[in-house]
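Because discrete structure vocabularies remain unfamiliar, we first show an illustrative case, written as a sequence plus integers encoding its fold.
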Amino acid sequence: MPARLETLDFDEFHREELPRRLAAGHGALAAADGARIGSLAFRLTGGGAYSYIPQADRIDIVSGDEQAQTVVELDSESWQGIVRELETPPGLIYARRVKCLRGDPMHFVRWEPRLRAMYNGRPVFNPETVELQARDGSSLDVHQTFALASEPEEMAHFLRTAGYLLVKNVFTPEEIASFREHGEGLRDSARQGDKKSWWGRNTRGDAVLCRVTNAGSRPIFRDLYQDPRLTRLVRLCDEKLTPREADGVEGVTVLFKNPDMSEGLSDLPWHRDCGMGGHAVMCPVINLSIYLAAASRQAGELRMLPGSWKGSYGFVEATDTSGPEGVALAAEAGDVSLHYGDVMHAAPPPEGPGPYRASVLLNFRPPDFLHHRGEDNYNDVLLQRSDGQVEHLSKAASRT
């Protein structure tokens, strides 16, 4: 945790500060989350406990954990990190820094929108009621696409409103062919457990490469950070963002979508890119994708939840029929998409015979970006297995 932050007292916060925040409107915001996930308690390691009991229009704070359906034990630093939007339930679960004493650890994950509302006043996002407006006051066409020659202010308005942007025909077929060739070279050199690649396993039991994170080791990818077409698009953001240093470790990623996956993170649930932690000191960030192949229901979609980047939305599987549908980016090879790291997005499994989606991923961040725990990157906590597989969150949670 950044050293400049004043230590929060667990008991004093729950007796005085949190009730004040809830009365000031945070309680109503938290109660707006209609997820039926029961009550939650935090118990400090070697300390006390407090329960959060949801009511129709408020959240009650009760001393102790006897009334809570799910009880999570964690240390003071981890709890303070949640309060300050530095830590997240998924990040703490993957890092094995929490213990579920009672109930379902995934309920802790699904409590995150309520916690962010209670602690920080961040509204719970409701995709069924959100109303997004175009510049002229009409309803925003959330499926709209753009070209490099499109009006910059129209593009900027769409990006700040929806949280994402799809720009067509940015790269030529010749450039894409070269990117694919170098991507295949990285695929051939990747090895399980090299800490530079993500792996999974398909339904036949085969180990399958999902992404390589060291594409910045090749100049053709590293130099993309200086490509004027891309820097022009990033300047559409209201915030001043700078390129992530492409140091050959995590500066550029190449993603390979795969069919019939049973383990690993080739398919992604609805999530935000700061979902492992660090929101307060890293956001806003922009993640940019260069499509090397089409993104479609058959090839593997990238779906966005329009307008969600300024709110908070709970964990849900991309394939859950009770979850949101979102907007599928209708991208072809040569297209580029940008999205804020806070926008909820998902990557469901492909439904066709291939070829499958492949993308080059770049990251742009504030000049004062820092890892909230002072580590090199967020990949480290995910790549703990010797086979290079990033476990599904629910599997990691089952061990808490």
